[in-house]
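so my prof wants the structure for this chain in the tokens format not the other one, which i didnt know existed until like an hour ago. anyway here's the sequence
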Amino acid sequence: MSDFFSSGWHWFIAVLSVGGLAFCIWLLFASAKTTDMSSDGTTGHVWDDDLREMNNPLPRWWLGLFVITVVFSAIYLFLYPGLGQVEGSLKWSSDGQYQDEMAKAQAKTAPLYQRLAAMDAPALAADAEAMGIGQRLFLNNCAQCHGSDAKGSKGFPNLSDNDWLWGGDFAAIKHSITEGRVGQMPPMAAAVGSAEDQRNLAHYVLSLSGSAHDNLRAQLGKEKFAACAACHGAKGEGNTALGAPNLSDKVWLHGWGEPAILAMIQNGKHNEMPAQKNALPPEQIHVLAAYVWSLSNR
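here's what i got, hopefully its the right format
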């Protein structure tokens, strides 16, 4: 991709733009002239015995429009960027305009966010204006993964319940939004043992939440759970410090049942929530975190 942004493309675009404008000017003068090729004012071409090709000048209105477009193009290239890396006399850019508009919007909303920044999560949750802002921030930045109702889907956590991988208090939610989260479960097949051992472990995991399971296999797999207890805890209740899920409830982020658990044991799982600190200012993250907190604390 670095070749695409080399200086050669700057010259290519500049030459193409100037060459196109020069061609239009030449075409304007060339088309304005008439050259009689026959004494009767025609080109000398005749079809079907009586159809003669005339050589009349272009209509004045057409020439006028053509002149206007050429002049407009020349003025535009002088004022705005259109010749590769040449900025234009106005120094305008789409990024600059975006930054100016964002600065104006932030200046306009600064007093509002200053008021909201001084409020804690319960106070924000009780403020209708704050929750309206938080909901719009959520729909614009979070709903793509967690759904417009925040109930998530397979692989994307439900934010409206009380099951939290990294903790559901306001500070933890705010940290998750700001810095993002990376969840990593390594493949555990080698540590667990044979295919039968893996199946036994899967049924033991199912037994922790009271899900349907083979009781004999669960008893045989209990010993193998020692390989998992370091992250999930001795009773499988999870560890929010590591983002390790609670295996003793009925919330299954990546699927339920023996096949899903076996796939997790054999393949592991890498999950990542991107950090939003570069996309949202701190004051907006503060309100957004309060909105997410309110979903499970109503």
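also thought this was worth mentioning. The chain has three domains: 2-79, 115-180+274-295, 184-273.
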